[in-house]
Amino acid sequence: MATNRPSVAGAKYGTNLQKAALAVGAVFLLVGILGFIPGITTGYDTMTFAGHDSEALLLGVFRVSILHNLVHLAFGIAGIAMARTFSGARAYLIGGGVIYLLLFIYGLLIDHHSTANFVPLNTADNWLHLVLGAGMIALGALLSRDDTGVRTTPGRTTPPAA
C-alpha cells in the first residue's frame, strides 16, 4: 500500500511517478506564467478576467483569460507540491487527468460564444484537454506499477512475494 512518505529516504522526488507529476506540474506553472506575457500571448490587450469575450491566445492558438492562467498556475503549484509523495503524485496525475477529461467534455457541450464558456475555451483547448487528460491518467496508472504489472510501493524495488 502506498504511503505519504517520500519514496526514497532523503529524496523528494524519488520515483518515476513523482518525477512525472513534478514535470507536469512544472509545465502547468510555466504555461500559467506564459499566459501573462504579451507577445507569447497574442491579443493580450483583449484579455478579460473570465468569459467568452477574451480574445487572448497563448502561442496564438489556445484561448486564455486571467482566470484560465490562474487555474494553470494553481494546477502547477498543486502538481509540484503533490509530487513530493508517491500517493500524492498518483492522485495528482489520475485526478488531474479526470478533471481535464471532464473539461474536454464540457468544452464539447457548450456554445463557445455563450456565457457558459467562462474559462474561456476554443477547439484547440478542447483537443489539448483530451490529450492532457488521457496522458495524465496513463502516466499515473502506468508509473504506479513496475515492469511486471505489480503496483509498486514507495521504497520497494521488487514486487511482493506471491
Tell me briefly what this model is.
The chain is mostly helical.
Please explain how this structure is put together:
The protein has 162 residues and is mainly alpha-helical. The chain has helices spanning 16-34, 66-82, 86-109, 123-142; strands at residues 41-42, 57-58, 62-63. Strands 1-2-3 form a three-stranded antiparallel β-sheet. Helix 2 (66-82) packs antiparallel against helix 3 and helix 3 (86-109) packs antiparallel against helix 4 (123-142). 38% of the residues are buried. Mean pLDDT is 86; it is low at 5-10.
Architecture blueprint of SSEs:
Elements: H1 16-34, E1 41-42, E2 57-58, E3 62-63, H2 66-82, H3 86-109, H4 123-142
Antiparallel strand pairs: 1-2, 2-3
Helix pairs in contact: 1-2, 1-3, 2-3, 3-4
- Amount of beta strand: under 5%
Number of helices: 4
Strand order of the largest sheet: 1-2-3
Quickly give the structural class: mainly alpha
Distance between the termini: 15 Å
Structure keywords:
3 strands; mainly alpha; 4 helices; 3-stranded antiparallel sheet; 162 residues
